[in-house]
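Example 4.3 (complexes with small molecules)
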Amino acid sequence: MTSIPPQNPPQVNSAREADVIVVGTGPGGATVARELTRRKKDVLMLEWGADRSIRGTLPQFAGAAAVPGKSLLVTGDLCAMVRGITTGGSSVFYYATAFDPPLETFDAQGIDLRPAIAEIRAERPLAPLADSLMGPMATRIMQSARDLGYDWHKLPKFIDQAKCRPDCHRCNYGCPEGAKLSGRHFVDEARHRGARLISGARVEQVLIENGRAVGVTYRHKGARHQAYATTVVVAAGGIGTPLILRNSGIPEAGRDFFFDPLIVVMGAVDGIRGGREIPMAAGMHREEDGYVITDMTVPWALHAVLNTQVGRLDQLHRHRQTLAIMVKTRDSLGGWLSDRGGIRKRLTASDKAKIRKGDAQAREILVHAGARHIHRSWYLAAHPGGTAKIGHIVDRDLQTRFNHLYVCDCSVMPRAWGLPPSFTLMALGKRLAKHLAGEAPADPTAETL
Ligand SMILES: Cc1cc2nc3c(=O)[nH]c(=O)nc-3n(C[C@H](O)[C@H](O)[C@H](O)COP(=O)(O)OP(=O)(O)OC[C@H]3O[C@@H](n4cnc5c(N)ncnc54)[C@H](O)[C@@H]3O)c2cc1C
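Answer. The structure with flavin-adenine dinucleotide bound is encoded below.
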């Protein structure tokens, strides 16, 4: 029998000081960091992913969002969940569609997001795509849906359209033109104002002393480090955050969550040679049916993945003729995360019924558009959240049961919503930064959990 050599205890290296440590740089964390530096706070951002400039290439996307067990997680239903492990988080690869935050949900928690939403609208280009940027596939799908009487409309985008190029699909892999707003923009702005970013830094735990957060431990280049600050904001996303919280004395994090499962329904048409356009240009939200349905034209490599997943190798050569419609659903809360981030959550019968209904509607639109060879992908997901809900793990100021330990990302969503959350996360980030800077005093009725 071979003996297992004892593991060397990891070396602990030097401390770093800051007013606020922000863990993770997706839309939640990057917004907080940016807003705090605008208020002259000394901010240290710790980001697990790399900080290479965005090239908009398949290899860069695959390295940040398709590494099995890290950025590509698979559920028991073989639903593939992707997240971006890079500076800017998943928003580097998102489709920049901006759905208005669910105000009533937040009002019910005593959180008024209206001022933050108004600020974002005033600061950012937020509009549907101009006709010249709508691709031929999105246009054909929209025409078909409207012919059938559906309220199919263009969706608002966080895209600076003046920087955008027609016949371009690189936003799928990260937009090298800087046209698509992502967490990267906020990180760059924060750094410009003096914030520090350590990339490749995987935070493991928040250090708690006398019921108060004082810093974090993280791994960087094979060694363990500590960093100290007055306040810690954990914004490592719907999967990353609960793991850190659990290691820090909040074992109940990471239960009863959502991930917005989706399918893509595809069919080939004549008279089109597309395949290079901005996805999610138009669609409709079927609130009562629990799903959103939009066009979703993807580059060849992703088309190949969607078809290979379901054994439709016969469709690989039809990429430039294939209309693709996404059905993204509001799944029921449930499941739990393993301590290594494994997703232990199955789709329920009601989740599958919503998907089937959306599938049927997508097929109707494709048939009317003249599509043949209609088929669907397997399940995918890209919005994990609700793993550290407001009213359960954090209070209405987003503070945990430990003083000066806050959470600001999709984890805090108080209920399943089923829509893309980045606009909401930016609004939460703005509100939290004001609170931390003392501009919005804590609500006296807010309970410390
Ligand atoms: C293909 C795709 C398309 C999408 N389209 C849209 C869209 O059109 N509109 C929309 O609103 N949303 C969209 N989304 C979803 C959106 O991108 C995410 O919901 C959003 O980015 C979540 O933000 P977050 O701040 O919660 O976390 P993330 O963006 O996931 O950021 C978390 C960050 O924390 C880092 N991190 C994780 N663990 C650690 C750790 N231990 N230590 C340090 N750092 C850590 C990660 O590297 C990451 O940078 C899309 C997502 C994908 C993948």
